[in-house]
Design a protein that fits this description.
The protein is mainly β. The protein folds into three domains: 127 residues, Sandwich (Immunoglobulin-like); 183 residues, Sandwich (Immunoglobulin-like); 198 residues, Sandwich (Immunoglobulin-like). The protein contains six helices and 33 strands. Strand 23, helix 5 and strand 24 form a beta-alpha-beta unit. It is an enzyme of class 1 (oxidoreductase). This is Laccase. Belongs to the multicopper oxidase family. InterPro entries: Cu-oxidase-like_N, Cu-oxidase_2nd, Cu-oxidase_C, Cu-oxidase_fam, Cu_oxidase_CS, Cu_oxidase_Cu_BS, Cupredoxin, CuRO_1_LCC.
């Protein structure tokens, strides 16, 4: 069985490693710990699809190592950059309460860690338990530089569902035969779309449905009559994914490290950046068969995309002790996945997500709103340079924007500029709260598809209750856009298709038990409404987690001011904070 890392190891060992770590944490006392990790960012040679290339890894592993913690623990990760690239790491979904210097997005909260330099990320896990993940947050380096974050409840606190017998991370990714830094560099130079990936992966392995890849298959070995918790993470760069296991159901109990009311499905959908814990109950007796675990994209794009399917294999332990060769001759069943553009399936699935909203895990939805925002999100264009040749629509360059502003990364980190009071020339504070030129967002697109450039932020006083409606546009075709907000969780209080109706749609908002998360898909040709409380001072990135749209400018930032109390103020930066 092939490895999912650059260092040979069986995929079964991943289950053992997670189980051992869980048992170790369980044996520790109830007091919060400081857990220290050493992340050496280095190049490693990895072979997939009969081709070998050098990729960026942490500690030579692909995917990278799992970060384990309990709710309440403090984390220290020493990152040493031994790669040839500028580097920063983001701890996706970690609230970073009063620790914005550790959030990680390059030129937002820090300058990159330059080759040969190091930085220690220090933060605490507060009020979170479940599955998150870490990844590079600069250029397209996260295509191989990512790994799970497993957060257990405090010692002695059980899950609010039957405890599984085993648990393991299952990470979806994408694999390019070519260097991804060259892929995005070429796209940005030509103004066209980037070359699509050559395969999807499960725990770094493309699986048997691709040519020259049967030896690189993730295999999950299970026993009959057991329950396994799969910690699902979509680390793919550019695609939302359907996922299903043939002849088995999955019970969803958690999304984005937040418990939900459990519900059972045959198939789920997970956007880039999202996580979900699901319970897999195995068959009561040995079935004499194996089962594909498959993922393939959900998309409405009018452009090109990787229209392939990745498969792992669910294998049952044979009580007779038959050899693995005998197991390979068993029948293998494949699941039936939705059509690639099945938006109704996606809408029905997301409608099932509800916060637990219990006494122990309440849904503290902001009821009284201080500031309302309406952001359009979608694609647009930039004019081609004079005498230039561009490969975007009608000879232009692809762009993406929020409220028609395509975000330009500064050369100084926004948080450093804000904290030192040197924001002039770095960013402006006039990001539009509403579209400057309203139009029929999901109807006939306007003739002028150009967007403006800018480095603009929204300034919020500490404690502001925010309602934000995110509206997809059909300027260059309606698409789903997974939006990730750093520094906060938010409640998804409503969603729908067509244009948001401010007169009638708010009456349908769920303000009782809406799902809480950190990444949400803006429906293709529709809208989503979220609410959050700005209780975390600092500068917080919000961006599309489709990496190509992020590269084209679909991003912005919130600047939350200090509060009046000592525990509402951002501390000074650490002494080892990288400098630009």
């Amino acid at each position: 069985m092939a490895s999912s890392s650059a260092v040979p190891a069986s995929s079964a060992s991943a289950v053992v490693a997670v189980a051992a770590a869980v048992l170790l944490l369980a044996a520790m006392g109830a007091e919060a710990e400081t857990r220290k990790y050493q992340f050496n960012v280095q190049m490693a040679s990895v072979t997939r699809l009969c081709g070998t290339k050098s990729i960026v890894t942490v500690n030579g592993q692909y995917p990278g190592p799992t970060l384990f913690a309990r709710e309440g623990d403090r984390i220290e990760v020493t990152v040493v950059n031994r790669s040839p690239y500028n580097m920063s790491l983001h701890w996706h979904g970690v609230r970073q309460l009063l620790s914005g210097w550790a959030d990680g997005p390059s030129y937002i909260t820090q300058c990159p860690i330059q080759p040969g330099q190091s930085y220690v990320y220090r933060y605490q896990i507060v009020g979170q338990r479940g599955t998150l993940w870490w990844h590079a947050h600069i250029s397209w380096l996260r295509s191989t530089l990512y790994g799970p974050i497993v957060i257990l409840p405090p010692a002695g606190v059980p899950y609010p569902f039957p405890a599984p017998d085993e648990e393991l991370p299952v990470m979806f990714g994408e694999w390019w035969r070519n260097d991804t830094e060259a892929v995005i560099a070429q796209a940005l130079q030509t103004g066209g779309g980037p070359n699509i990936s050559d395969a999807y992966t499960i725990n770094g392995l493309p699986g048997p449905l691709y040519n020259c890849s049967a030896q690189d298959t993730f295999k999950l070995k299970v026993k009959p009559g057991k329950t396994y918790m799969l910690r699902l993470i979509n680390a793919a760069l550019n695609d939302e994914l359907f996922f299903s296991i043939a002849n088995h159901t999955l019970t969803v109990v958690d999304v984005d490290a937040l418990y939900v009311k459990p519900f059972t499905v045959d198939t789920l959908v997970i956007a880039p950046g999202q996580t979900s814990n699901v319970l897999l109950a195995t068959k009561p007796t040995y079935p004499g068969a194996s089962y594909y675990m498959e993922a393939r994209p959900y998309t409405n794009t009018q452009g090109t995309f990787d229209n392939t399917t990745v498969a792992g294999i669910l294998e049952y332990e044979n009580p007779s002790g038959s050899s693995s060769a005998a197991n390979s001759n068993l029948p293998i069943f494949a699941p039936t996945l939705p059509q690639i553009n099945d938006t109704n399936f996606v809408a029905n699935y997301t409608a099932k997500l509800r916060s637990l909203a219990s006494a122990q895990y309440p849904a503290t939805v902001p009821q009284n709103i201080d500031r309302r925002f309406f952001f359009t999100v979608g694609l647009g264009t930039h004019p081609c340079a004079v005498n230039g040749t561009c490969q975007g629509p009608n000879g232009s360059r692809f762009a993406a924007s929020i409220n028609n502003v395509s975000f330009v990364l500064p050369t100084t980190a926004l948080l450093q500029a804000h904290f030192t009071g040197r924001s002039n020339g770095v960013y402006a504070t006039d990001f539009p709260a509403f579209p400057l030129m309203p139009f029929n967002y999901t109807g006939t697109p306007p003739n002028n598809t150009n967007v403006m450039n800018g480095t603009k932020v929204v300034v919020l006083p500490f404690g502001t209750n925010v309602e934000l409606v995110l509206q997809d546009t059909s300027i260059l075709g309606a698409e789903s856009h997974p939006l990730h907000l750093h520094g906060f969780n938010f409640y998804v209080v409503g969603q729908g298709f067509g244009n948001f109706d401010p007169a009638n749609d708010p009456a349908k908002f769920n303000l009782v038990d809406p799902v809480e998360r950190n990444t949400v898909g803006v429906p293709a040709g529709g809208w989503v409404a979220i609410r959050f409380r700005a209780d975390n001072p600092g500068v917080w990135f919000m961006h599309c987690h489709l990496e190509v749209h992020l590269s084209w400018g679909l991003k912005m930032a919130w600047l939350v001011l200090d509060g009046s109390l000592p525990n509402q103020k951002l501390p000074p930066p650490p002494l080892d904070l990288p400098q630009c």
